[in-house]
Every structure is written in structure tokens, then in C-alpha cells.
Amino acid sequence: MWRLNKMVGILGKKLGMGQIFNEAGRHTPVTLIETGPCYVLQVKTKEKDGYTAIQIGFSEKKKKSTSRPQAVRFDKAGVKPLRYIREFRINDASQFTLGQKLQADIFNKGDFVDVIGTSMGKGFQGGVRRWGWSGGDQGHGSMFHRAVGSIQSGARLGRITKGHHMPGHMGADRVTIQNLEVLDVDKEKNLVVIKGCVPGSKNSLLIVRESKKRPKGFIKQKVVQASPKKAKSGAQKK
Fold it and tell me: Is the previous residue joined to 37 through a cis bond, with omega within 30 degrees of 0?
């Protein structure tokens, strides 16, 4: 596998979206993510736990809002109480220690990452908005504009099939956006600038990890080849 053993992912907070301009004046939509600082709370090994992984925490919180078992765990790692705790499976956990600090410097410009977050909740929605139904005729006499309509699968089956698209709760789901390019990294402020949009609202929790489909440091290379017609016409002119 191409995956590196250095680091799988890190926790962060979505700060918002913006845009950057290149030398030609073309703009690119970007998302600012505050990645870390995160702290290692537990190191799991194959001999003791059956698999290798690390648990990291992010975003400090008040000690009075922490349960006693969690407080003992944070004291053992030598860190302040943290709000979010997540686990990452890795191939080699020997390079991590309790209380180790993880920051945005694990990423570099040109890397590709997968961002995981919770999409914005939109409450209870009808089928037209939730599933993109075309709806009925918009004329005054149709009496059928955005209603559900018939949901039975026919007289032979006589019941509603499982998984039928219906009105219901929309949003607030776990969403993963893959292969997002890292355009810039500010290691002093723990900021990562990612091309495109990511799930969630401002100040929501995000998981930023190495891309599963592209290796670390992979850069797209565009190969421009002249078409045979153009090459042939140029030869005829000569």
C-alpha cells in the first residue's frame, strides 16, 4: 500500500469559506480549517488491544464539565480536558506517545485529503426538496403540485417497497468529501486551506485525513498533446 505510517488524520474546526486569486486573476473557492492542536490520549498496540491505533482529542473544555473517569484519562496523558475524541487506525503506532501534540504541519501544499463532517440539518422536508422530485403540473386545475402521490408498487405486490423515497428528516448526516487538494498550510496558526467546500456549518467538527485514493504529495499532471489534424495541417503549410 502507498499509505504512509506517519499520520492518518487529524481533527479540526471549519472556520468558513473564501476565495483566492491566481496571477491570471482567476478565483478558486477554498475552505479554511483550523486543524489542531490535537493531543494523543491513548496508543493501542496489536499485542495488547488486537490492533494498532491512536486516540486523539481536540478543543479544550472546562474541567467541571468533564466526568471523573475522563478527567483521570486526561491527567494520565498530561493534557487539559478535551471536547472531542476520535480514533485512527494506523500501521505503526510506535512513533506516538501519550500527550504528543499534533498540528497542521502533518500536511503539505499539494497533498490530497478526505474531509469528514456532519452536513447541515434542514429539518423535515417534502419529497420535492429532499429527493428532487419533479412535482406535478403547475396549472391551476391540476390540484397536484408538490404532493407525494401514489406510493404503492402496483396491485400485484400490494405493499410499499422498502427504501421508497418519502418526505422526512433531511441533513445532519455523516458526509465524506474525497480527494480535496491542499492549497496552502499555515503551520503557525494551524490553518489548512483546502480547495472546494466541505460538509458542516461554521465551527463544526471535521476529520481531515490522508486521501485513500491518492498518495501523499500526489500532484495532477496535465499532458498537452497536439491533435493529429493540427500537426498535419502545420506540416502542409511548411
Answer: yes
pTM: 0.78
- The answer to the question of residue 1 being in a domain is no
Residues 6+ apart with CB under 8 A from 163: none
- Of 33, 30, 29, whose CA–CA distance to 14 is shortest? 33
Per residue in 162-217, pLDDT (tens digit) is 888 999 999 999 999 999 999 999 988 999 999 999 999 999 999 999 888 875 55
One domain for residues 47 and 18: yes
The 10 Å CB-count burial string (b at 16+, else e) for 26-45 is eeeebbbbbbbbbbbbbbbe
Pairing of strands 82-89, 27-35: unpaired
Which set of grid coordinates corresponds to residue 224?
498537452
Residue with cell 485525513: 209
